Amino acid sequence: MSGLQRRRVEPEILDELSPADPRAVASRRDLGRLNALMLHRGILVNLMRRHLTLPPRRILEIGAGDGRFMLAAARRLAKQWPDVDLVLLDRQPLVRPETLQAFQRLGWRVQIVTADVFDWTEAAGAPRFDAVTANLFLHHFREPALARLLRALAALSPTILATEPLRAPFPLFASRMLWAIGANDVTRNDAPASVRAGFSGRDISALWPHEEGWRLEEGRRGLFTQGFAARRIAR
């Protein structure tokens, strides 16, 4: 576990590239494949089904990117949850018209919000949601900023769900082997950085606001993933 005892948040190349840069486009394609290999869609869907006992009406995804990750989850959920207002929040959203049309066919209405996650979630007029989800997003923040973000999310929703990189030797080893699936240089750099910035044990839970009335669940999900769920307990 040498070198992985503590989180190490480093700049990632993809965050610095223009969305239209061919290297960024290729890396986003790689991320889609990695989400599939890590089974993140299924893990998030299972978390949503487990922790949302009633069909949600409003869902917020932070760090939504091109929206295709949530679309894949929605395809598994829409029969049970056919009438959802979904907000996709990102600093640089890249949601294509065909993705919006696919959501519409499922009966999900989508609003795209271009904003800094802190500015938007901490705004006095920010709406409330039945659930907030994040995929491969929380690990970008160092502890003080992540604690601040979790406080803001706790004020927005009674259910927070996240799928993040597992900080462990095997995921780190696997992240260094992505040349074998044709990942480009951006992905080959950023994937190990994401693992080193990832989570293990109760890392996220330790930063959750110290308030009564919340049930936290955190731990390894599969080979590569740290799952996190926070649910407000009804009184």
Regions with little confidence, pLDDT below 50 for 5+ residues = none
- Briefly note the structural class of the backbone: alpha/beta
If strands are numbered along the chain, what order do they take across the biggest sheet?
3-2-1-4-5-7-6
CATH architecture: 3-Layer(aba) Sandwich
CATH superfamily: Vaccinia Virus protein VP39
CA radius of gyration: 17 Å
Proportion of beta-strand residues: 15-25%
Count of distinct strands: 7
The DSSP helix count reads 9
Averaged pLDDT: 94
Biggest sheet features: 7 strands, mixed
The secondary-structure element order is HHHEHEHEHEHEHHEE
Distance between the termini: 41 Å
CATH class: Alpha Beta
The CATH topology assignment is Rossmann fold
The assembly state of the depicted protein chains is single chain
Shape descriptor reads globular
Walk me through what this model shows:
The chain is an alpha/beta fold. It has a single domain, classed as Vaccinia Virus protein VP39 (Rossmann fold, 3-Layer(aba) Sandwich), CATH 3.40.50.150. It has nine helices and seven strands. A seven-stranded mixed beta sheet has the order 3-2-1-4-5-7-6, sandwiched between helices. Strand 4 (131-135), helix 7 (143-156) and strand 5 form a beta-alpha-beta unit. 39% of the residues are buried.
